[in-house]
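Intended use. Records like the one below are meant for learning the mapping from a protein sequence to its folded structure. Do not use them to infer anything beyond what is encoded.
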Amino acid sequence: MAPYPLIDNLEHLANPFTQFERIHSALVGGEPKLQNPDFRRDLQLALCFIYSYNGSQATFNSYRREVERLLLWAWHVKDSPASHLRRDEIEEFIHFCVSPPEDWIGTKNVARFKSHMGERVPNDEWRPFVAHVSKLAFRNGEAPLSQHYNLSQAAIRATFSILSSFYGFLMQEEAVQQNPVALIRQKSKFIKKEVTRRQVRRISNLQWDYVIETAELLAEEDPATHERTLFIMNALLGMYLRISELVADERSAPVMGDFIKDTDGHWWFKVLSKGNKERLVSVSDEMLDALVRYRRFRQLPDLPTVAETTALIPKNRGQGAMTSSRQIRNIVQFCFDQAYERMCSDGMKSDAEDLRVATVHWLRHTGISEDVKVRPKEHVREDAGHASMATTDRYIDTEYRERHASARKKPLRPH
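Structure written out for the chain above:
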């Protein structure tokens, strides 16, 4: 049977360094193993490790998911604290994650805990693993099925990385003597090596022309709703922002004052990106024009002032900055859908197909891919916030063009 969850959302989680007893007492009734001091210590160490990543909601969620799965498997399948697992048992756990029993697989994302009479109680519908379908399949009415669950290569890599960090933490706490994840030499059994560079997912220039033209038409028809839409679309492609860099969260809240003019009169946009690192994105003349248009609609002076605290992307209703990345996704998806319909009505259905599966992140990829054609890649790397030049090099597709050009005229009947 599927186990109950152990770790609540960050906003409901007490500080385990100072309030572990409170967390323990709330869980022990539904998890009898916590009456055992070894399992109790297991949970305390896991909570302290995960809570250390509370500076980023996304990172916290990722680390919680992997460590919680490990604890639940160790406790309920191996009847052992995670701190007692050996290298071969970690391999066994990875195999379990690749093909978990159906009882452990859900078909929708649900909250781990819910509020009941002032208390946080486990959600019976929650499962450690969730089956998904592709965006296109979902839009075509297909529902996810637990028997179709699949763990991607990226997810397997994340499992290895996070669990290795966890056991590194346990070593520092002298709870284990060695890192069993680091001892797994043949990770290639689980992780396939890429023999060629993956192509970057992006929309075509024609598709972008339709998308941005669609946003402009929407803004003309309903400025109260879609002037913001137009600015969001321009910012995502023109400054290749991540969706998390547009919404307010526990780390930062983007404001108009994040647009900064230097002593040479050049404009920059200050971003708090992955790893809590600040970066400056150069603002082009056309992006600055888009900002001016957006500010005029909001009845603000043409350009931001120093330390201006006006929310960059306001909520639909009420005061303050937008805090929901889902809202941004819905806005972008609406533009994609409208652009797709316009392209189909113009007789370009085959050219429009990518818009049915495109995501917000494709706009970032598209912006970077276009810029590396005409700008020094070192500049693009800094604007994109890539940790290494190798990441930026992925966007240079000259190699693919030349490779395909040399193969294009190959005959099927050699002379």
